[in-house]
Every structure is written in structure tokens, then in C-alpha cells.
Model the fold of this input.
Amino acid sequence: MQKKYRMPTPRRKVEGARLSYTASLITQGRHKFYSLTLPSEVLARTCFVSTRSEAPNEGFQRTLDKEKAQKIADYIDKENGTIPTAIILSAQSESRFEYSSKNKTIDFNDISKAFLILDGQHRVYGFSLAETSVRIPVIIYNSLTRKDETRLFIDINTKQRPVPNELLLDIKALAEYENESEGYLRAIYNNFKASALHGKLSSSEKAKDKITRVTFNAAVKPLGVIFGDKEAEDVYKILNDYLKAIQIGFKQKGIENKIVNPYVFRAIMSIFPDVAGKVKDRYPEYTMDNFYHSLAYFFENISVAKISKKHQGHKELTDHLLSSLRKDFTL
Done:
């Protein structure tokens, strides 16, 4: 069971003091909210979350993950990082939240449950763990009902979609954030744009009948142990010939379009070490013809129905492909 963590509550200087900050009043639709910045230590001691596990009748946030929050703290402290995304809060009645239109300021009680976090719980938790004090952009709603708070939480987490992992991987090189493994996989992937996978790749977003960079990395990364210190170009040439042979065999079975299915692609790559072992035992080079000849009985044994069915993962399909590969042994 995952351990639960509560938001830390640093000691305040004066218990129950009133705090005041300059803010802008904004109206969108039927709601009004206030835009401002707050010191991270103020957020840490005045905000709280209401989780489903702790309050099943009222809570709606997920349980806090300390490891995730610690990564945010390390990013702030060790990398001098910046997180400009606003924390979204709902002022509770106990805060006695007030807005002065004359002074353009908001006032509230400096208490532990002044604000319920609608979005950004791990950022707030991470800021609280950081040694560095920073100013945090904040949006504060006031006078919301619990139904309003829950609906806003749903809207934020469904209508405001995060950046897809495909795009993040695709632009990591531009940000110079790639590690050695990611750079190696990118070099292999980019070569495939004019190869056996030509027209079947989608680098920065999910697309129907396309292999994304995320799928490709998940399928190829485990093969690193057998590639050793081979250059990315050499690995590409071997895998390209392997996939060309697979395509020929799949086309003969009338399932050539299935290679772009994420689960099928991962299963195909999962059996590559076994196929490469067969080629190495019989031939001096890893060529398309040698791969194809080593897979001749394999293509006869595979089940079109099993490959074409809707899969929930690649393991079951990998087991079937491995079984089909090993049926070709005769004395």
C-alpha cells in the first residue's frame, strides 16, 4: 500500500495573523478569481488537499507522492529551476478571504486550511520541501461550493490536456535534456524515416497506424544489452533488414498493416534476440534475406487471428511469437 503524506505545515511567525497581497480580479464565465503570487512558504502552511482515500464522501484529489514532490524540490534547489504554471486554489470560509477593490489587494487568515488545492498539489508539496524560497503564481477562487470545486477539478484535469510524451521526447534534443540512451535511440529512430518504416512513424504525437517515438523507444531500449557498443547507424541497418523480412512474411499472411500496432511492434522487437541468434548460427551477416530465411517456418506457424486480435499488452503476443519461432526445430 502506498504511504500517505500530508502537506507539511511550517511554523508561522504569528498564529492567526492576517496576510495581504496585491492581486488582480478576473472574471471568466460565471466565476471570478484572483491572480497573484505568494511566497512558497506561505503556500506550504496555508494549503491542504482533500483526497478520496481520506474523505471518500467529499475528497477528489489523489494521494500525495513524496518522491514526485522531492523531484520538484531538487529541481528548484539544485537546478535553479523555474515552474511558472499557476497553482489553483479555493479559499475556504475559515480564511475569511476578502478583496479590496480600492487597494487591489486580497487579505486572508494565516491558518493551515485557508485554501483547498484544486490543481498543483505536488508542486506545492515540492516547493515546501525545497530549501529555496520562491514566489509562486497563484489563482484563487472564492465562495465556491464543494460541487463547484469538484467540477473545476474535473475540468482542469480533462479539458486542459498535458503535453503528450511523444512531443516531449521529440523536443528533448532541442532543450539539450537528452541522456545518452535517449540520444542513441533518437539516432536509430530518425534513420527509420527513410526505410522499412517509411511513412509509418509519428515523432511528436500519437497517430493512427503510426509508430510513435515513445512506442519505438519502449520496444528498442531493452535490446541495448545485445547491441553492445555498436554505433546507432549499424544498429539501424540490422533492425531495418529484420523489419523488412518481417514485413515480407506478414504481407504473405495478409497482415502487413499490423506491424504499426504498438503491441505487435513491441512483440516483434521482443523476439529479435532469438531471431538474431538463429541468423548468427547459420549465416555470416545480418541481411534481409538471411533474416527471412531464418524466419521461414516462423511465418507458417504464427496465428493471424492472434496477431489481429485487440491486445491489452504485448506479453501474450510475445509468448505466441516465441512459441511459433521455436516450432521450426527438426533433426
